[in-house]
Design a protein that fits this description.
By secondary structure, the chain is mainly beta. The protein has one domain (29-110): Jelly Rolls. The protein has strands at residues 25-31, 37-43, 47-52, 58-64, 66-71, 74-79, 83-86, 92-96, 101-106. It has a 5-stranded antiparallel sheet with strand order 1-2-9-4-7, with no helix packed on it.
Length: 117
């Protein structure tokens, strides 16, 4: 597969571009009853995710392509099928290639939908 299934990309779940630290990505979000979120990202272009910090934990897995995590001056390549856990309070950024798809779980509310704004 080179894309997420259409049912996962419903317009009501589309993430607002104002909720993102990255350019050239499209995302869709699902909310947990406990305030957590799952986000599905599609990276259309090569780019970077600006450094940021969350007050909740983050877990992600690369489904397609390659994502390079930047933490404490270190580059951590995360390839297809690999996962990474980022503890709350840890500053992180990233680099991604066009065509990369990732799935993220956030221990808190990370993004807003376009229709919420």
């Amino acid at each position: 597969m080179n894309d997420f299934p259409e049912f996962m990309k419903g317009p009501k779940n589309k993430i607002s571009s104002r909720s993102q630290y990255s350019k050239g990505i499209q995302g869709y979000v699902y909310d947990g009853a406990d305030g957590s979120q799952m986000a599905f990202w599609i990276h259309a272009i090569d780019g970077i995710s600006q450094e940021h910090v969350h007050d909740y934990d983050e877990y992600f897995v690369v489904v397609q392509g390659r994502y390079t995590l930047l933490i404490g001056g270190k580059k951590i390549p995360v390839g297809v099928g690999e996962e990474y856990f980022i503890a709350k309070g840890v500053a992180h950024a990233g680099e991604y290639n066009a065509g990369t798809r990732t799935i993220h779980a956030f221990g808190g509310k990370r993004v807003k939908r376009e229709i919420e704004e």
